[in-house]
Amino acid sequence: MEKSKVYFTKDISQEGLIKIYEALKRDLKGKVAVKISTGEPGGHNFLNPQLIKPLVDKLHGTIVECCTAYHGRRYEVKEHWRAIKEHGFLDIAPVDIMDEEGEMKIPLEGGTHLHGYDIVGTHLKNYDSMLMLSHFKGHAMGGFGGALKNMSIGVASRNGKAWIHSSGHTDVPDKLWDYVSDQDGFLESMAEACKAVVTFFKPENMAYINVANRLSIDCDCDSNPHEPEMADIGIFASLDPVALDQCCYDQIMNSTDPGKTSLVNRMLDRHAIHTVETAAKLGLGSREYEIVSIDKD
Prior knowledge:
The chain is of the alpha/beta class.
């Protein structure tokens, strides 16, 4: 089986982001959703709006988000809009909170937890293609956040996030905490939600970029994240989300940076690679990959 290509550049800049997208040779057509995390207020590791602006412009894209399942500033729509504005995203592109006007179920074939469906914002149906533009970093519950987390928890509506976190036991945010003891079930549920999103758009209408900078052990959803302890790595991109996240995981695990220890421990403690393992079993991609550098020597 041919290895998936993962493109890489050390150049974390507007130009680097454009070049690595172009290396994918994927023309995202129609109305393009650019899925990012706009960040919980108090945090500061989310992708810089000015970094991503030229790429979003190139795609004539709309930045898309959904409300959170925890009671932070992005739980309610009004406060979520305030946070998006404060973080500078309204200054660079159109933004859409996809579950602002409700949610809908999208079908899922297979899986063992989500009972045949994922729950997303109703605005998802307004888009023809999607760029998963993710900040790769640690995560308190998932171990790490990359393309797969952004596509599952990130695309899910507020109630859909509860559905995934609870492994299909409840879609009520305040009740999800009763079902978080099954860590592998949660990770498997994220992979299942990813499959539903890929099925919705079709693989040929999706592309994936992970920006590996500000490598905190905490997610952009954290209002008080740990400062990064290891150096920035670069930007990775692929048409295969499984290969992309596997590659980024391997880059952390195999790094010679002494500051990696806390992030490695976080990923191992949460069994983070299991999301990638499950996504591969569900047919979303391959864990075998080839890194293609686009940097000139």
